Each structure stands twice: as C-alpha cells, then as structure tokens.
Amino acid sequence: MKISYAWLRDYLKLDLPADELAEKIERTAVEVDGVIRPSEGLKKVVVGDVLECVEHPDSDHLHICQVDVGEEDPIQIVCGAPNVAAGEKVIVALPNSWIGDHTKIKRSKMRGVVSNGMLCALDELGFDEKLVPKEVADGIFILPADAKPGEPVFSYIGMDDEIIDMSVTPNRGDMLSMNGTAHELAAIYDQTPTMPTVDLHEATDDLADDDLDVTVEADEQAVPQYKMRLIKNVTVAPSPLWLQIRLWNAGMRPINNVVDATNYILMQYGQPLHAFDYDSLTAGKVNVRFAKAGETLTTLDGEERDLLDSDLLICSNDQPICLAGTMGGLDSEVTDMTTSIALEGAVFDAVKIRKTAHNHNLHSEASMRYERGIDHGATQTALDAAAAMIAELGNGTVANGTVIGRDEDVEPVTVKITLSRINHVLGTELSAETVADIFRRLDFPTTVSTDNEYTVTIPSRRWDIHIPADLIEEVARLYGYDNLPSTLPTGQPTIGKLNETQQIIRDSRKLMESAGLTQAISYSLTTETKARAFALHASDVTKLDFPMSSERTTLRLSLISGLLDDLAYNNARKEHNVALYEEGRVFFSQPEQVRPKEVEHIAGAITGSMVEKTWGTAENPVDFYQIKGIVEGYLKSLALAEPVRYEATTDHPEMHPGRTANIYVGDDLVGFVGQVHPTTAKAYKIRETYVFELDLAALIAAPKAHQQYQPISKFPSITRDVAMLIDDQVSNAAIVALINDKGGAHLQKVQLFDVYNGKNVPTGKKSLAYTLTYQDQNATLVDDDVTKAFEKVLTALTDDLGAEIR
C-alpha cells in the first residue's frame, strides 16, 4: 500500500519528516518497505511553453520547437512526440539536466538542427510505464494551462510528494485505505482526523429501482452485501490532473473519470467498487451466483477464462459479465461511448475471492482487499461517495435510492478486559487512566467499571479485534513496544544436548562420511514416475495441486532417485567415481490419511571406484560386497539387539534381480541393498551403480543392545581352518550362523577366506573355506578344548547342512 504524504495531510496535521513518520508506523503498526521520493535525483526539469512548432525539414516525424522556459530568450528543442503543438505547456529537461534512470541531457544536434534540451514524457522522468495514462503513453505529457514557464515541474505532476510504501500484514487490512491509515496515525499522534464527507445529490423524480433489478442467488456467507447505484447522463473523459496524481502516486493507472473515481474511493475507503456500462445490461437485470461447469468469461485484460464452480459471478439476465471481487468482464466495460453507469458496492467472502484470484492468477487491488477483509459498515458510504464523484466529474445525475440485492446489520463488537489482565500480560504497571486514554485515541468508545474492567466497543473499521488479547496488543502498540519492561527468564538452567534421534542421525552422517561417502541434498519433489521408484513400502503418492514445474510435482517415496539424479549430473561432467549418501525424509501416504507420513531414511549410491588411482594402486570398481560391507558396518555401529539378515529378492523392479537383497532386523524389513538394474541405469544415463536405502526411523526405534567394551585379551588365540563341499543353495549366512551356534564359548571370529566353484567341483556344489579363531579372555586356551569345540562344528556342518569336509 503506497501512502501519499500529501494526501495524509488532508486528514492530519503532520509536519515531521516522512522518514520519521515511516519509522513510527513500522514500530507501531505495520512494516514499511521504504520512503519513495519521485523527484529524487532529477535536476533542471522545468515547465516550458511551446511558442512555435514546425516540421523538421529532413524528417517525417520530428518537430522544431521554440520553447519559453522562463529565460530571457526561448530555447530551441527538437522533439519527435506526435502530440507536441504550439500553445502547450510541457515538461522540459534543460541542457545538463538529469532525468530518469540517471540520464544526463546535453545539447545535441538532430538531423543537423541544434536541440537545447528535451521535451519529456512521464516515463522518461522515472514513472512506471504501467502508470502513464494511455492518452499520453506514446507522446509527451501536457501540463495544465496555468503552469508557469521556468518553474520546477515536480509540483505540477505530484513528484514533489513523498510516498510511504507500507507492507500491510493480513491482519491489518484496515490500513489498505487512506481512512484506515489516517485513523491509525491519529491514534499514534493523538489527533482527531478530518475524515471525508459525502455530498451526494440525487434526482428526486428518477428512481433507481425502476431501471435496475438486482437479485443475489449465492448464500449469505459468500455474499453478505450487494448494492448498486445508477448514474445517468455521464460524459466519460480523462480525469482532472489532481485525481490522476493521487492515483499514480498510489500505484494505479488513470483510465477515465468513471474508473478513476471508483479507484480513488477504493484507495480512500478500502471498499472495492465496480462500474458497469448500464446499456450492456439486459433490461437492467443483475444477478449474483456461482459459476456453472463449462461457462467462460472474457475479462478486461482480454483473456477468455474457463470458470470454476467455486467462482462468484456477476451476471446480467444470467449471462456472466464480471468475476466478482476480482476483475470485470470486457463486454460490460466503461468506454468513451458509455452514458449510464451501474455502480456496484458489495462484500464478498474472503476465501471465495482468494481461491478465484489464485485459480485464475488474477491478483488485483480489489481482490487483495477482499482477501484481507473490508469494513462491512462502510460499503454504503463508499458507494454513495463514488456515485457523487462520478456525477461531479462526468456531469451526470444520480438516480434516487440504492438498489439492494442483499444487506446485513453491521453491529460493533464489544470486548471486555480488566486492567490487571493487561498489566499481567505486558508486565507493566499502567494506570486505569493511561489505558482509557489509549482506547480514546483509538476512537474506541469505552466504559470503565469500579473494579477497573473496560467494556470496549470496537467500530466495524477494525474487524481484526474480537477478543481481549487483541485489545492487549492495541495497548502495547500505542504505549510503545520500546517502553515495555524487559526481564530475563528465571528457572533452573539445563545443559543442552541432542536427544537420541538427533544423536543417531548426526552419528549416521559421520559414519557414512568415514566410509568414504559424501553428503548430498536432493529435492523432496520430483516426477511421479521417479517418486514411485525404489519405494521400500507400498504407498500412494502425494501430488501438488499447483506445482511450479513438471519436474517437481510429487513428493518422493525414496531417496535413491534423487541420488541417481546427482550421479547423472556428475557423470555428465566427466566425474565417474562418485560415492554419495543422503539422510532425509520420504513421504508415505494411504487413502485414509489427510497428510502424508514423513519418515526419516538414509540412502547411498556409489558408481565407479572408491579407491583413487595412483602410481602404485589401480582403480577397483565398486561391487555388491563393498556396498554391503558399508551397510553392515553401519548397522553394527547401531548395536541392534535383534540379528540382521540379508535375503536375496526380486521385489524391486528398478534393481538387478540377481544382485539385490532385502535387509531385515529380526522379522522387520528395514531396507535393501544392491545394484541398480542396467535398464534403470541407462534411463538415468549413469554407469554401473550400487545403492542402499534404510528406514532410519525404524532403526532408531529398534531395541538396542548395551554395548560392552572389553580390553584386548593378553592371551594368545588359536585358529582352525575348515574347507567343505556344500550345495549351492546353502548361503554363507546360514553356515556362519551354524558355526557360531556350535562353536562354543571361546569362538571369537569366523572368516570366509576362499570360495571356489569350477573344475573338479561337482555340479550344484561349491567349495568354501573358513578360518575359526578361538580365544579366552582370562587364560591360555588348551589345544584339546579347541579341538573338541571344532569337532562339534564339523559334525554339525555334516549332519545339519550336508557338507562334505575336505
């Protein structure tokens, strides 16, 4: 909201610098983005009177002008504007002047003719092109006839004003108007504002009801109020300069006297209004309803819009003519041929308007105010003020009466609060008189009981106040946040530390980095196809209603797809040895869930080699066992109470069916590890890649064993080797589990050191060799004890697994 300081002075007696006023607003009410001084940086820009204007002899569009700029002799300026003519007052940038965009104007020659300056358009002075009136958009700006040559031009076009650019928060929609801002500043500076009055003159023998028929079909929540006035015999023309200045300093483009009047009242009262060409209405009939499926409307910007059933429409004889609270229709636009105006003043539901503006990407000054709320009690006043202004500017007459489609009784809100409660919350010792004076400055009628209970009547212009807490905030604002006492918190100090989940997550990152992986951070949003890939559990996907791009439409179910994108990015840049991990959240969803369930996961992806090639070391491409070893080491560090096992699986279509294993802790599936399917790798444009993904939340919740640390034994160990022929179907895990079960109390380690499946080995068999290490923590082992324990292992292997000991 851009607030003109000159306009504010119509309401209040303010003589302090604009910067000081802006700082006070920011400290007390809403944030201020800055103070704009339109003439800042401009120099030697004056009023000029064109005495003579002739065609340039060597150009079909240039003119040679003799211009009076208040000096002894006129100066000669060459100008290409189509609307320059003798007798006009214009904006002149003198030689060595500075105009917009820090541009310096010098004496020059144009087609051989000397030009001592420049005749300026508004945008050349720094005006936004969107604010320049259309009638002078392609030429220079013509000043009023009473402008005095040689005087600085800034006062004539409002550039001597100072504009306070406020960033109004959603709860302070009342400050999206000059009236609301004036009330706020009046309270801050303890003044009584001079509020605008409405001087409306109605025709006595011309009833608006005779020409307008207004009905509201939408429910009362969607449309609490809908009213119209009729102004006849209007002459549509450009607005007077004072009105144009008010509008462009407020950030709005002047259109014509009718539209400008509605926009002026919008800025003054905060009440959106809309003017229809009465002759475009069918028999003067207007009805308000929701849109129907398949309906379209061409809005004022020339766009044909497909309407939704949540859109509120203004219709004439049931034909859409306006998107309520957002933008009017092209067919009912006020033009130069318009003679009668049907003027709308209404209150629409904030949620409905916000959805319409969002769905159609139509965010206007009107929709912004409806979204934040407007003063329900000021609708009729604003409608009357706009009708009076249109009639005055357009030499028209206002038909008698307001045609009401729907009205509401707007009653002020009453809130009660005690002095003790205010002081308790604010930590102050304010007197009853101080608090009562603050309510007086806010213009809130207040009564005080003998026990210092305030009964405060809240006018409709402050619809943000409903409960005692709101009044406490008002007292704090007006008393001054800087004046509130500050105290340090009291209580027993505690030592800050990470909880168990935070500690495990932090330790997980350290362990992954110590294993040689680099942390990556990927997008949580991806495509639906990638989101479904590598999912650990069955789940629906969560899609965005309004994604920013086609590549970011769906919440991920796995971290791996993001890591593969990272590998592809590196691979495209000739980085072929990459090892990454990511710790983050995935999003599982079921049909009955309102929101997806966020689950912590950790995943890794490795391609190429993890060993850097040197003069004495060759690269060793990563394989299944290397990445499985990283996972095993990580899971071991968690000290899980239940055993971890790996089972070959073909459940993951994106993974290689012969080189992928599910990971279980006890009977719970917690992840998988393996090679990315070659087809999937080709789709991602990556080389042979191995990945893993673990449900970190499940691992954190799993029971943990107490880690017992023992000193290294000072007694020697004894080893035994065993080689065997065994069926291919028997896994190494089953063999190791059996050896550990039968190996006795002193068995410390089982290590597989040879695997053979070739010549001299029968079909369906494989040869495995293990080293068993025995050690006692308290004494030297006796060879006979080790031999007895080892023989039990051999017997179990033969009897239970059918192994043939070699």
TrEMBL record:
Residue ranges occupied by any TRNA-binding domain in the UniProt entry: 39-154
Catalytic activity: tRNA(Phe) + L-phenylalanine + ATP = L-phenylalanyl-tRNA(Phe) + AMP + diphosphate + H(+)
Cofactor note: Binds 2 magnesium ions per tetramer.
PROSITE patterns the record matches: B5, FDX_ACB, TRBD
FDX-ACB domain sequence ranges: 713-806
Subunit-level organization: Tetramer of two alpha and two beta subunits.
CDD domains hit by this protein: PheRS_beta_core, tRNA_bind_bactPheRS
Similarity annotation: Belongs to the phenylalanyl-tRNA synthetase beta subunit family. Type 1 subfamily.
Top-level EC class as recorded in UniProt: ligase
Gene Ontology molecular function, alphabetical: ATP binding; catalytic activity, acting on a protein; magnesium ion binding; phenylalanine-tRNA ligase activity; transferase activity; tRNA binding
Protein name per its UniProtKB record: Phenylalanine--tRNA ligase beta subunit
Keywords, sorted A to Z: Aminoacyl-tRNA synthetase, ATP-binding, Cytoplasm, Ligase, Magnesium, Metal-binding, Nucleotide-binding, Protein biosynthesis, RNA-binding, tRNA-binding
SMART domains documented for this protein: B3_4 (SM00873), B5 (SM00874), FDX-ACB (SM00896)
UniProt cross-references to Gene3D superfamilies, sorted A to Z: 3.30.56.10, Bira Bifunctional Protein, Domain 2, Ferrodoxin-fold anticodon-binding domain, Nucleic acid-binding proteins, Phenylalanyl-trna Synthetase, Chain B, domain 3
Location(s), subcellular: Cytoplasm
EC number: 6.1.1.20
Residues at which Mg(2+) binds: D464, D470, E473, E474
